[in-house]
């Protein structure tokens, strides 16, 4: 498999998370992206969610639902390509429902985690808590900190680097 073919799901997820638009792209020899019907998806329509690629699955987390409520549910699919996209309900997380939050996959002490942070929750309250999850078959999220040094925010950038575990939180207005 060509290196670009392995990278495509990660590139698409990056584009989706950053601008909430999945740009269709073509790399010779790679399968084409396909649009599927909303009726094929069991989760409720939403905006401002987290979408990321982790442990060979695409994960959708939280967001503002079409009924105006904030979600903390987690959905996953092992299939990024092809006609069949079964979505699995991974339950609800222990973090509160939110939109405009950020999520990233980051390795700490040789263990790969998903980190979720910030966002906006009930009562349009800005959040700044940080949670981590290993997707080890449980829906158990661990609270890393309820009050980091940075101020509560939503719709912000977040980057995790493999260099000495560095994190960078960027506020976007």
Radius of gyration (Å): 16 Å
Low-pLDDT segments, ≥5 res: 1-27
Quickly give the CATH architecture.
6 Propeller
Shape: globular
Tally of strands: 11
Sheet-strand content, in percent, reads 35-45%
CATH topology: Neuraminidase
What count of domains describes the coordinates? 1
Characterize the biggest β-sheet.
5 strands, antiparallel
Q: What is the N-to-C succession of helices and strands?
A: HEEEEEEEEEEE
Molecular structure report:
The protein is mainly beta and 173 residues long. It has one domain: Neuraminidase (6 Propeller). 10% of the residues lie in helices and 39% in strands. It has one helix at 3-19; strands at residues 46-47, 50-54, 57-65, 70-77, 88-92, 102-108, 111-121, 125-133, 142-145, 157-160, 167-170. The strands form three sheets. Strands 1, 2, 3, 4 and 5 form a five-stranded antiparallel beta sheet that branches. It has a four-stranded antiparallel beta sheet with strand order 6-7-8-9, with no helix packed on it.
Could you give a quick summary of the protein structure above?
The chain has 173 residues and is mainly β.
Features:
173 residues, mainly beta, Neuraminidase, five-stranded antiparallel β-sheet, 10% helix, globular, disordered N terminus
Please specify the SSE layout and strand pairing.
Blueprint: H1 3-19, E1 46-47, E2 50-54, E3 57-65, E4 70-77, E5 88-92, E6 102-108, E7 111-121, E8 125-133, E9 142-145, E10 157-160, E11 167-170
Antiparallel strand pairs: 1-3, 2-3, 3-4, 4-5, 6-7, 7-8, 8-9, 10-11
